[in-house]
Amino acid sequence: MRSKLFVPGSRPELFAKSLAGAADSISFDLEDAVFESRKDAARGALRDFLRGGSAAASGKTIIVRVNAMDTPHFERDVPAVVQPGVHVLNLPKPESPAHVRTAVAAIERAEKANGVETPVGLLLNIEAPAALRMAAELASAHPRVVGLQLGLGDLFEPLGIARREPAAIQQAMFTVRMAAGEAGIYAYDSAFADIRDADGFRAEAMLSRSLGFLGKTCIHPSQVAIANEVFQPTDAEIAHALKVIEATRDADAKGIGAYVVDGKMIDIPFVIRARAIVASARSLGLLPG
């Protein structure tokens, strides 16, 4: 899931078009992208589209960002959009592990009512100081939690922190990545609001990739190609990973615990990383299965 493209729930004319694009994942948005007066209409339009089956058949990861649990919309959103083919619900502003478990209970009720057989996961937004502080607790709140998503605009702007301040960005990213790593789930990067600044988007994506993030949120189709490129293993990374795996087989056969590949000492953590790179390359069609 190198790229995740937001699609407003109030723009049904974009639904099918988004599925035909290059984004690995589509995140249909019922929260910030939809005016209050259009929430009901957006919810109904998205429910009908999901029931049509084209999203499920698209081969993309299908995500829906619902409204926060402290709004009257959450309890209406979940039964409408937990449909076959939806993989993940994106939950804004989780306040506590108990909050997460309450959301899971709502999802389970909707799955039963709508005949959803594959469990829907939860992607939690880390977009408030309290959420950042308790990110590890949120990540471990329930097995349904599949990832943490950083929301830098919501996190920084109310506090007067510059959205583009490198030190603040790196610290927030590192905190979220460590919390996700502790729980064994993925960390996902924030949206980048300046659509015209492709270089800025790329730089932020490269930073998050260097910190182990899975991919980056896109708010415009023009950002998708950059995210796909940045979060895709490079030829050099793939070649080195294959060398590491081959050397590991030889070392295992000889009972050697640490060895050298391309002048670098290799042991278990590096092997784990190499296997992840090869698995990613294969899933993207960059290597034979």
3D structure, described in words:
- With 289 residues, the chain is of the alpha/beta class.
- It has two domains: 3-230, TIM Barrel, CATH 3.20.20.60; 235-283, no CATH class.
- The protein has helices spanning 15-19, 39-51, 74-81, 97-114, 129-133, 135-139, 152-156, 166-183, 198-210, 224-230, 235-254, 268-283; strands at residues 3-8, 25-29, 61-65, 88-91, 121-126, 145-150, 186-188, 216-218, 259-261, 264-266.
- The strands form two sheets. An eight-stranded parallel beta sheet has the order 7-6-5-4-3-2-1-8. The chain has a two-stranded antiparallel sheet with strand order 9-10.
- It starts with a strand and ends in a 6-residue tail after the last helix.
- 40% of the residues are buried.
Per DSSP E runs of 2 or more residues, the count of β-strands stands at 10
The CATH topology label of the largest domain is TIM Barrel
Biggest sheet layout: 8 strands, parallel
Shape: globular
Give the number of helices: 12
- Poorly predicted parts: none
On the 0 to 100 scale, the average pLDDT is: 94
Overall number of structural domains: 2
Oligomer status: single chain
The largest beta-sheet arranges its strands as: 7-6-5-4-3-2-1-8
| Content-based structural category | alpha/beta
| Elements, N to C (H/E) | EHEHEHEHEHHEHHEHEHHEEH
Radius of gyration: 20 Å
Features:
globular, 10 strands, alpha/beta, eight-stranded parallel sheet, TIM Barrel, 289 residues, two-stranded antiparallel ribbon, 2 domains
